[in-house]
Design goal:
The protein is an alpha/beta fold. The chain folds into 2 domains: 260 residues, Aminopeptidase, CATH 3.40.630.40; 119 residues, Immunoglobulin-like, CATH 2.60.40.3500. A 6-stranded mixed β-sheet has the order 14-11-15-18-16-17, with helices on both faces. The longest helix has 32 residues. The chain is elongated and about 70 Å long.
Length: 402
Amino acid sequence: MSRLFSLFVLWLALAGVAPALGQSLSGLARVLPAQSGFVAAGQELRFTLELSQPVAYRVYTLAAPPRLVIDFREVDWSGLSDTDIRPAKGIAALRFGGFRPGWSRLVADLEAPFALVSAQMSRTDQTGQATLDITLSQTSAQAFAAQSGLPKADSWPAPVAALPEKLNDRVLVLLDPGHGGIDPGASRGGHSEKDLMLTFAREIAEELGRLGTVDVLLTRTDDSFLSLERRVAMAHQAGADLFISLHADALAEGRAHGATVHTLAEEASDEASALLAERHDRADLLSGMDLSGQDDVIANVLLDLARQETQPRTERLARALIGGLESQGAPLNRRPYRAAAFSVLKAADIPSVLLEIGFLSSDRDFANIINPEWRRRMAEGLRDGIQAWILADEAVRGAVRK
C-alpha cells in the first residue's frame, strides 16, 4: 500500500510539469574463433567471422601488396592468435587488433588479387550473435588495383544487423554500468566501481523486470571496456526510451556524500559536478548522430531542436529517480539534482541521466554501496521512480495530443 501511495505522490509531482516514446548487450563484440575462418572454393575466397553481437564494420581492399582490410567499431581480440582463425589457400598472413581507441582492424595478406564481391552481417535472434560473411573472387592485378583504395571516412553501413524490434507499448530502459575493462573507475577496500555498478545494474534490471510494461538492456554484462561513444550509440541502436548511467565515484575526502542525479548542461551547476564530468571524459559526441559533414551551426540547431522536447522529460526523470530513492530512505546529497557536460548523456533525443548512487570516498556511502540489502532497497526505489515517470510522461503526452 505504501509503495502505491509513493507512486501516486510521485505521479502527482511529475505530471504537472512535456511528451514519451515506448536480451542484454555486452560491452564489446567478441570473436568466436571456432566458427570463424577462410574457405577457398575454386576462384572464390570466402571469409566468415562469428561475433558475440553485431558491430559496425567496413570492408575494403588495398593494393601493392594485395590485402583485405576490415575495420570494426570495437571488437575484443584478446587471447586470440592468427592461428585461431581457420586459414585457407590464398591467404599469406593474418593480423588483427586495436589500432586506435574504439577501433579494431583485421588485415589479411592475399597471395593473389581477389576482388571484393559481397560483405554482409546477419544476426541470430535466438543467441544475439552476428555473422560477417565476405566473398572475394580472383581477378587481374589491374582490375584489383582499380577497385582497391581507402574508404571514405564516413562509409559505415547503417544500421548494422538491427536489434529485435521492441513492442510499441513497452518502455525500453538502457542501464549503463559505468567504467569496465581497463577502466576500473574508483576503488576502495578491494572493491572497484566497475564491479559494483555492474552488480547494481543487474539488481535494478531484476526489479524492473517485475513491471509488465518495461524491457531492460545493459550496455555491458561483463568486465569489458566500453567507450563513451559506444554507450550512446547503443542507446540509439536499441531504440531506448531511457538511458541511466550508474556510478559510485570518489572525490576528495569530505567533498561529496549521498546520491546525486545529473543531467546534461554545457556548464556544470557546481564545482563537484565539473570535476566529475572531467573524470568521465568530455568526449565531443553529438548524440550518436553523424554530423561530421554538417556545418557547426546546422549541427547545433538540429541538436537544440531535439533537446527542446527531451530536456523537460529528462528533468522529470531526474526528479522521479530522486523521489524514488528518497521513498526508500536513501541518503541524498544536499543538492541531489545537478548538471554537467557528461559525454555519456549527449543523446539529444533520449532522456538520459547519470546517477551517482553515492561516493566511495565517503565512509557512510561506501558501507551502503557494498551492502546487498541496501542496494536492493535502492533498486526498488529506482524502479518506483521509473514507473512514476512513465505514468507522468504518458499523462502529459496524452494531454498534448488532445
